[in-house]
Design goal:
By secondary structure, this protein is mainly beta. The chain is 6% helix and 48% strand. The longest helix is centred in the N-terminal third of the chain and has 24 residues, at 16-39. This is IPT/TIG domain-containing protein.
C-alpha cells in the first residue's frame, strides 16, 4: 500500500502546514493504537482502524472509516463537528463506512481539526480529522448598475463628447472582475474609460468580495459623441452592461436603456437603482429587449434597492400607439411599496403585447411619498417575438 504521506524531495520547501499534518497523522495513529489495545480484539466494541483519505479532506469529498463491528450501516450515527452525516453510501458495511463530507457551518478554506464521532448499539468512538471548506471557484451574487451623474445642459449635435457617470454596486461571494460594455442603438461613437483613463470599447473593473447590504461600490464613466449631422429630437438608447469574467452567464447587470434625445437635457440620475431581475417564460431577455410572444401575458420581474420609507410604484409605456401594449402591477398593494428597513425588494409585473405592437419602452418608476425628488427609474425596451 503506498504511503498516504507525500514524500519530500531534495529542494522542496517544508512548510508549517506539512509538518502540522504529519504531526496530526502521528497523533491519530497513536490514538487509534491506544484504543485498539484498550479494547482488545475480542471486546466486540466498534473500532476505527483508519480514516481515508489521509490529511486534509474538503467538503463534498468522500471519506471512508475502516474498522470493525460497525454492524448494519443504518444503525451507525456519524457526526463531524456536531453535524450529522445524513446518508451512508454504497459499500458501507461491518468493516467500512463510506460517506461524503457535508457542509459544516463555520468551516473555512484553511484546514482545521474537528471531532468525528461514530456511535451504534455496540458503542461510541471519536477521532480528530482535518477538514476544510471547498474553495469557491465561481463568483455568484448580483451587480447593480445605475446612472449617478449626467451631463449638464442640452445634448447638442456639436461633435462634442458628453460624459455619463454610472455607479456599480456588487454583492459577490469572492473577488471578481467585470467587463463593462457601453452601447448606443443609433451608431454614434460610445466608449467607456478604462483603469488608465483612456476611452475604449470595453473596460475591466475589479471588485473585492462584497456582502449585503454594503456590497462593493465602483464608478465608471461612459462617453458619447453626438455627430454634427444628427437631427434634432433624434432618440437614442444608452446602456451600460457589466458581465462577470468567470461567470458570464450567471452574474451580469445592466443600467437599462437611458432614453436620450438630441437637443434635450439627459434624464436626471436616480436616487437608487431599479434593475431587471428576470423575464419569466414565455418572455425572455434578448440583448437590451424583453421579448414576449403576441397575446401571451408574461411575468417580468424587476428589483429596487430601496431606502427605508414608503414609495409609489408607477408603470407606464409612453409610446404605445393603439394601446397594443399593457403593463400591470402584480404587487399587493399594486401601486405602493413600504420598506421598514433598507434593502432589495422585488417588483412583479405582467406584460402583454397584442399582434402588431411595435418595439417600445416600458418605464418602471418608484417615487418616495415624502419627497418626489427621491426616485428610482428604469427604462426597459420591449418587443414581440
Amino acid at each position: 500500500m503506498p504511503s498516504p504521506i507525500q514524500k519530500v524531495k531534495p529542494g522542496d520547501l517544508i512548510t508549517a502546514e506539512f509538518m502540522n499534518n504529519l504531526l496530526d497523522r502521528i497523533d491519530n495513529l497513536e490514538e487509534r493504537l491506544a484504543r485498539i489495545e484498550a479494547e482488545g480484539p475480542a471486546a466486540g466494541a466498534i473500532v476505527i482502524l483508519d480514516i481515508l483519505p489521509e490529511g486534509v479532506v474538503r467538503v463534498g469529498d468522500e471519506m471512508r472509516l475502516i474498522g470493525r463491528n460497525f454492524g448494519v450501516p443504518a444503525q451507525n450515527i456519524v457526526t463531524l463537528a456536531g453535524k450529522r452525516v445524513e446518508q451512508l453510501k454504497a459499500g458501507s458495511g461491518d468493516s467500512q463506512l463510506v460517506f461524503d463530507i457535508p457542509p459544516i457551518p463555520g468551516l473555512k478554506e484553511q484546514a482545521q481539526p474537528v471531532t468525528l464521532t461514530l456511535s451504534n448499539p455496540k458503542g461510541f468512538v471519536s477521532q480528530t480529522v482535518l477538514l476544510a471548506d471547498r474553495p469557491i471557484t465561481v463568483p455568484e451574487g448580483e451587480i447593480l448598475v445605475s446612472l449617478t451623474k449626467a451631463p449638464d445642459g442640452e445634448l447638442k449635435p456639436d461633435g462634442k463628447t458628453y460624459a455619463f457617470v454610472f455607479t456599480l454596486k456588487a454583492f459577490t461571494n469572492m473577488d471578481e472582475t467585470f467587463v463593462l460594455t457601453p452601447s448606443l442603438d443609433v451608431g454614434w461613437p460610445v466608449t467607456v474609460l478604462g483603469a488608465n483613463g483612456a476611452p475604449a470599447a470595453t473596460a475591466e473593473l475589479s471588485f473585492p468580495k462584497g456582502t449585503f447590504p454594503e456590497g462593493t461600490v465602483r464608478s465608471a464613466t461612459v462617453q458619447i459623441t453626438i455627430p454634427t449631422n444628427a437631427v434634432p429630437k433624434t432618440q437614442a438608447h444608452l446602456r451600460l452592461n457589466a458581465v462577470s469574467k468567470r461567470n458570464p452567464q450567471g452574474l451580469t447587470g445592466s443600467s437599462g436603456s437611458l432614453l436620450l434625445s438630441v437637443g434635450d437635457r439627459p434624464p436626471p440620475p436616480s436616487s437608487f437603482s431599479v434593475t431587471l431581475s428576470a423575464a419569466r417564460p414565455p418572455s425572455a431577455q434578448s440583448g437590451e429587449f424583453v421579448v414576449i410572444p403576441a397575446s401571451s401575458p408574461a411575468i417580468v420581474q424587476f428589483q429596487a434597492e430601496l431606502p427605508k420609507g414608503s414609495y409609489a410604484l408607477k408603470l407606464s409605456i409612453p409610446n404605445n400607439p393603439n394601446s397594443l401594449w399593457t403593463i400591470e402591477s402584480r404587487m399587493t398593494p399594486p401601486d405602493s411599496i413600504t420598506m421598514d428597513q433598507p434593502g432589495l425588494t422585488p417588483i412583479l409585473t405582467r406584460l402583454t403585447g397584442k399582434p402588431g405592437a411595435q418595439p417600445t419602452d416600458l418605464v418602471v418608476r418608484l417615487e418616495s411619498k415624502d419627497n418626489a425628488t427621491v426616485f428610482g427609474e428604469l427604462t426597459q425596451r420591449i418587443k414581440l417575438a
